[in-house]
Write a structure and sequence with these properties.
This protein has helices spanning 2-20, 35-42, 64-67, 79-82, 113-121, 123-129, 131-148, 219-239, and strands at residues 56-58, 88-97, 102-109, 158-166, 174-185, 190-202, 205-214. Strands 1-2-3-7-6-5-4 form a seven-stranded antiparallel beta sheet, with helices on both faces. By secondary structure, the protein is of the alpha+beta class. The termini are far apart. It has one domain (32-239).
């Protein structure tokens, strides 16, 4: 009986060794995750969708980005131009409300927080390099809007454009804001248009909120939009592989 028991034991041991050990003495390698593929899959979740913006409608090719005539080097609506070294990028397309408020968002994923921070730090150079183009673009947006209401800018009307830095509502790990202000002086009244570009970083993910409206900037609406965007950036950052 004992020899039979020993034979069964040895047979079982041989089966276990054959199935559980490749003979190399080293553990099986872990599955490698393709960071770039994951970043590309997730980055679209960092920009706004229709579900995020009740009261707004997607404007398609007739939106804010089509109203601004910009060179390829200064196209602030192209995430590959704003974030040329990112692993993956996305944009939301343009949205507009019944009150003519305009929204456009971009996002970019980097391999490290340092790279993402460097991208945010480079935005002043981008704004400065393209300042004249941005000024001309927002002026044209204002002109087109007024023309749509039958308001003709006669010889006595003037348009003043200024691009300034401003302090947006603090969200994310880092944030920087720029305001493109247009003041249209007519004979009997004046109108203003403001286009804000706010850059937010959450970990390895950077996002841009572009928010335009006629009249005074609505800080409460913008703050709500920034908190929403920061939450989306944070969720994507948490889902990225190490």
């Amino acid at each position: 009986m004992r020899p039979l028991f020993v034979a069964v034991f040895l047979a079982c041991a041989a089966v276990l060794v054959a199935c559980g050990d490749d003979g190399s003495g080293e553990p099986s390698p872990a599955t490698t995750i393709d960071f770039a593929a994951e970043a590309q899959r997730l980055v679209g979740d960092a920009v706004f969708s229709a579900e995020d913006l009740p009261g707004y409608e997607r404007t398609g090719d007739d939106g804010l980005q089509s109203q601004a005539s910009l060179s390829d080097e200064c196209d602030i609506f192209d995430p590959a131009v704003v974030f040329p070294d990112a692993v993956a990028t996305a944009d939301s397309g343009a949205y507009e409300s019944a009150l003519d408020d305009q929204i456009f968002t971009l996002a970019a994923v980097y391999r490290s927080e340092d790279e993402a921070a460097a991208a945010l730090a480079a935005t002043p150079d981008f704004i400065g390099r393209c300042e004249d183009e941005f000024a001309g673009a927002v002026e044209q947006i204002a002109r087109d809007f007024l023309a749509g209401f039958g308001i003709d800018l006669g010889p006595f009307s003037t348009i003043d454009v200024a691009i300034i830095g401003f302090d947006p509502t603090a969200v994310g790990d880092e944030i920087v804001g720029y305001r493109m202000h247009v003041n249209v002086n007519l004979l009997v009244t004046s109108r203003q248009y403001n286009l804000d570009a706010v850059v937010v970083r959450e970990g390895r993910v950077v996002g841009v909120l572009i928010y335009g409206r006629f009249g005074e900037p609505d800080d409460s609406v913008e703050a709500e939009l920034l908190r929403l965007m920061a939450g989306k950036l944070s969720a994507v950052n948490a889902s990225l592989p190490e």
